[in-house]
Every structure is written in C-alpha cells, then in structure tokens.
UniProtKB/TrEMBL annotation:
InterPro entries referenced in this protein's UniProt entry, alphabetically: Creatin/AminoP/Spt16_N (IPR029149), Creatinase/aminopeptidase-like (IPR036005), Creatinase_N (IPR000587), Pept_M24 (IPR000994), Pept_M24B (IPR033740), Peptidase_M24_C (IPR032416), X-Pro_aminopeptidase_P (IPR050422)
Taxonomy, superkingdom: Bacteria
Organism encoding this protein: Rhodanobacter humi
Similarity section: Belongs to the peptidase M24B family.
Any Pfam family hit: Creatinase_N_2
Entry protein name: Aminopeptidase P family protein
EC class: hydrolase
One Gene Ontology term of the molecular function aspect: aminopeptidase activity
Ranges of residues in domain Peptidase M24 C-terminal: 540-599
Residue stretches making up the Peptidase M24 domain: 317-530
Keywords: Aminopeptidase, Hydrolase, Metal-binding, Protease
Residues annotated as domain Creatinase N-terminal: 8-132
Length: 599
C-alpha cells in the first residue's frame, strides 16, 4: 500500500532532525539536470504528489511548500489538496521566490540540505550566496529524500543504439573534431559534459532512459589530445557498437566512474565545463589544482543549428507527421459524428496510432495533451484513466502532441471545433492565431534574440487586454529533446542571456490564451530561422514554417483577420494541401481538401 504524502513529509522531517537540518530543498532535477527525469530521480513528485515537470519542494520544521509557475497552478492545487503542502505561486505578487522565502525563514547557523546530485554548481553557488548573507549554511552532501524513499526505483537499463548516419547526417568523428577545435581556442585540455542531449548528439547515439526523450544516462569526458570517455553502463551496448565507438576514439567506462576520472586530472590540465549544467556532486571531484574554464558547452550551440541535410530530413518528417494528424483528426470527427463514445484518452490513442504507422517513427516526443473544453485551459494537462473528460459534438478540443522520428522531432498544437462554438471561443482562437501569424511573418535583423521578438506574438492579445503565462517558443532537437536550448522566445528576464537566433535554428511558435473553467487556446507550429534579405541596414532573417497541418477554420472568426492575415492563412493551407495530398487518399484526402479550402 502506498505511503500517504503527509507520512512521507513526516519521514523527511525526521531525517532532517537526525542530521540537524532546519530545511530541505528538493528540486526537479537529476544528475544531468534534465527537464524530464527518470523515475529514480523523481523525489519531488514522490514526496509531494505533484507530477508537473517544473517545481521545487521546500520542507522546514513547520512548513512545506511547492513552488511552481502558472502553467501548473490548477494541477498543483488539485494534487496538493490534503497533503499539508502549500502551493507557492511563482511570479505573482506577494509570493517570494523560494530562496527569498528561505532567507526570511532560516536563522544564522541553521542548515539547509540539498542533494548534491540534484543541484548544479551554479545553483549551489546561488543558494550559498543568497543564504550566506544571513549566516545560513548549505549542505549538499546529504540526500535526505533518498534516505526515506525506501522503494526508490533503480537506474534505467534501456539499450543504447546508434543513430544511423543516413539520418544523423554528420559522423561523430567530425562532431568531436569540431568540439576539440573549440576547446583548443579556449585553452582547455579536457571537457566535461553531463547534459544528455549534448552527449547523444556528439556521439550519434540514442537511448530511452527518459520517457519521450531519446537519450541515455551518461557523462562524457573529452580529452583534447586523447580519447573521449563515455561513462555509461557497458551492458547497455552491444559489442559491435563498442567496437565502432572505439574506432572513433570513444571508450566506455562505468557510469559511476566519472568522479574517479576527474580526480585523476593534474595541475597541468585545464578542464572546461558549464557550471549550470554539471551537478556539484560531480564538480566536487575536480582536484583543486586543476585549472577550471567555466563556459557554455560548445555542442549546445552546434546542435541548435541544423545543417541543410538535417533540415531536408525534418521537412520530410513534417509531411509524414502532418499526414498522420490529418488521418487522426478525421477519425475523431468521424467517430463523434457516428455517436461513438470518445474520451480524451481515445484522442491520445488515435493520434499515437496514426503516427506509429509512419516510416521511421520511434515514439512520442512528449505525452499528448488532449484537453476538452475547460481542460484545455490547463497548459500541461494530461488525461489519466482516473481523471478525463468525454468529448461531445460541441465546443473545443486542444491537442498538443509530437513525435520522435529518425529524421527529426515534431511538436504541434491544434484546436478542433467539435461542433457548435461560442463567439467568445472563436474570438479567442482568432486572437491567438493573429499572434502566431504576426511572429511567423516577422523579419528581423541578424543578431536579434527571442526575447526581442516575443512581443510580436503577444501584441494582438495585449490589444484585447489578454495575455498568457508561458513562453512563446522553445528550441527543438533533431531526433532529440523536444525542448532544446540555447535559444528561446519568451519575455525578457532581468540578467538573462540574449541568445541570437541563427539560420538553421528550429523553434516553436505557440501563443495561447487560457480561461480557467471555460476553455484554452494554443496554436503551435515549428519554424526554422532562414536568411531573408541583405540591405544597407545589414542582414535580415525570417521564419520558414515547417509544420504542415491545417488549422480548424470553424474555430475562428474570419472577420477579425486583416487582409494580410487572411492571405497568410490561405497561403499556408495551400502549402499544406500540396505537401500532404500525395500521402493521403479516400476520406483522409477529402478531409484535407475541406480543411485547406480558402477562407
């Protein structure tokens, strides 16, 4: 029988008392600081019952609080009910950030504990800096959640496979040579990587240790003038793959051996690593005499810019993905028209089955969000067997889904009108589309960043005194994580880095509008940055829309669209029809023709 949440919190407090700890902080993190975590490192979810992907739990002697952002407020309120854990809403008036709250609550000489394998070196420094002002001591050598989580899952054991060169497009030897060139320019003799997508991209390897993300647990230590050591369990590789890796200068060592390897570095070595992407439990193993070069991982910028061969693969994947969704959406409409009972779980099943029938499909890029009516107002809603809605032939259905293919990663959101809609719903859907069109049509100077463009998507909503609480766009990997840096399109953050958008970067464009208890709207396409023009004012860039799937015009109010916006939508639908028609037939083709007709 599962232990109730209050009993888990009580066990954590008992462990805190045993070690003289006044408060414990439990981030959403693993030793690779991943967004989505293997079950073994879902301690925050186990302790709190809150399953959202972003959140920080803090437990003191008298208080327990869960800090999360507006995407998860409704979900957190529901999942924390009766737990004794308070929801602490991030970025709303009168709610302190968690470090500010700790600074106000803890006293001089008291101790805060955080597991060293769940906080980056940069994060630990921030804690120590903020709390040290008040004389609070931070200990990262205690894993208190692990001490009370007695049935904690084991490490994942999924196989590691090669991403075939026909889809990877660039040999790993070439990627490693490019990396070493960048390291020499920095004066480094070695480079430590813990971020799983960087490692998978550099090695042309893929795994399934993390749900929906084709990555595997590993660290990578690259010697500039020697071999690269991949710290991953040997049993995950077949012998032939180990031999091919060795031929490219990559040797396999035990996953837990990274600390010992770092400890062997000497005073003549210079280790480059990114302090925000390496946990302090690993960085603590670096000998004091080793020169540290703290800088961004070069591979993060390399993999963000897709080369022409990769983009050709992505464009073909978008055709296949769009064809799959056309079939799935048509089937949803057909079953509803026939009066068959259909739930949000059935939507997930139909979308998955349609994608699975496509060539080179590997799996979902994230768990499908199928939110009917009020559930669509929850940006990260997920239907479960215990809690889901049945569809009716009226209102709106929001479907946010994506696929992992050997030739790319997809992420798309569409809002379907299942029958009669309200004037408010059509107005809101059109306002959001106006924002998407504004950003999709933008031209901007080379060197511009996502935060500089974010307001373009919000302007039509702001004009109606509306807004949304999430970013407008995130980078997307190439058969890798659906959320990829370093670029993003979101409001400016004080002190945040401005990463220039470069040709070849793929980003989502996904404005939204959410009205709790009523409905939610989000339109999402993926787009790639391309060169647009060169003038006396310099080089200008633009977006090429990659996603190929019609918008449901029945959910729109065409009279709110200007002539240029109507032309954009008609041109987009003409492109979709031309790209997908050869892949469809019968009822699916008829559905496509109907939904791609001009306004």
């Amino acid at each position: 029988m599962s232990t109730p949440i209050p009993a888990r919190i009580a066990a954590l407090r008992a462990a805190m008392q045993q070690h003289g700890v006044a408060a414990a902080i439990v981030p959403s993190a693993d030793p690779h600081l991943s967004e989505y975590l293997p079950e073994r490192w879902q301690a925050r979810a186990w302790l709190s019952g809150f399953t959202g992907s972003a959140g920080t739990l803090i437990v003191s002697r008298e208080h327990a609080g869960l800090w999360t952002d507006s995407r998860y407020f409704a979900q957190a309120e529901q999942q924390l009910a009766g737990s004794g854990i308070a929801l602490m809403k991030l970025r709303v008036p009168h709610t302190p950030e968690h470090l500010d709250w700790l600074a106000a609550q803890l006293h001089r000489d008291e101790v805060l504990a955080v597991a060293g394998d769940s906080v980056s070196l940069a994060g630990l420094r921030a804690m120590e800096g903020r709390l040290g002002e008040h004389g609070v001591r931070v200990r990262s050598d205690l894993d208190l959640p692990g001490a009370v989580w007695h049935d904690r899952p084991a490490l994942p054991h999924a196989r590691i496979v090669e991403h075939p060169i026909a889809w990877a497009c660039t040999p790993r030897a070439d990627k490693l040579a490019r990396l070493r060139h960048a390291l020499r320019k920095q004066g480094a003799t070695h480079h430590l990587l813990s971020s799983l997508d960087d490692i998978a991209w550099l090695t042309n390897l893929r795994g399934s240790d993390v749900e929906c993300n084709p990555v595997f647990l590993a660290h990578l230590l690259v010697a500039v003038d020697g071999k690269a050591t991949l710290f991953a369990e040997r049993g995950k590789f077949d012998d032939a793959l180990v031999a091919r890796l060795a031929a490219d200068g990559i040797v396999i060592a035990p996953y837990a051996g990274v600390a010992d390897a770092l400890a062997e570095l000497g005073k003549d070595d210079a280790l480059m690593f990114e302090p925000g992407r390496v946990v302090c439990a690993v960085s603590n193993a670096i000998p004091a005499g080793v020169q540290r070069i703290e800088a961004a991982n070069p591979s993060t910028a390399f993999k963000a810019v897709k080369n022409p061969a990769e983009l050709d693969r992505v464009r073909e994947v978008m055709r296949r993905d769009g064809a799959a969704l056309a079939g799935a959406f048509r089937e949803i409409e057909h079953q509803l028209a026939d009066g068959k009972p259909l739930t949000e779980l059935d939507v997930h099943r139909l979308v998955h089955a349609a994608r699975a029938a496509q060539p080179e499909f590997v799996g979902e890029s994230f768990a499908t969000i199928a939110g009917y009516q009020a559930n669509g107002a929850l940006p990260h809603y997920r239907a479960t067997p215990e809690s889901h809605s049945t569809l009716q032939a009226k209102g709106l259905l929001l479907i946010d889904s994506g696929g992992q293919y050997l030739g790319g990663t997809t992420d798309i959101t569409r809002v379907l009108a299942l029958g009669e809609t309200t004037a408010e719903q059509r107005r809101d859907a059109t306002l959001v589309l106006k924002g998407m069109i504004a950003l999709s049509r933008a031209r901007f100077p080379k060197g511009a960043s996502g935060p500089q463009l974010d307001a373009l998507a919000r302007a039509p909503l702001w004009a109606a005194c509306c807004d949304y609480g999430h970013g407008t766009g995130h980078g997307v990997g190439y058969f890798l994580n659906v959320h990829e840096g370093p670029q993003s399109i979101r409001p400016p953050v004080s002190g945040g880095a401005l990463v220039a958008l470069e040709p070849g970067m793929i980003s989502s464009i996904e404005p939204g509008l959410y009205k709790p208890g009523r409905h939610g709207i989000r339109h999402e396409n993926l787009a790639v940055v391309v060169e647009a023009d060169r003038t006396e004012f310099g080089d200008f860039l633009a977006f090429e829309t990659l996603t190929l799937c019609p918008f449901d015009r029945r959910a729109l109010e065409p009279g709110l669209l200007g002539p240029d916006e109507r032309a954009w939508l008609d041109d987009y639908h003409a492109t979709v029809r031309a790209a997908l028609s050869p892949l469809l037939e019968g009822a699916d083709l008829a559905w496509l023709e109907r939904h791609c007709a001009p306004l």
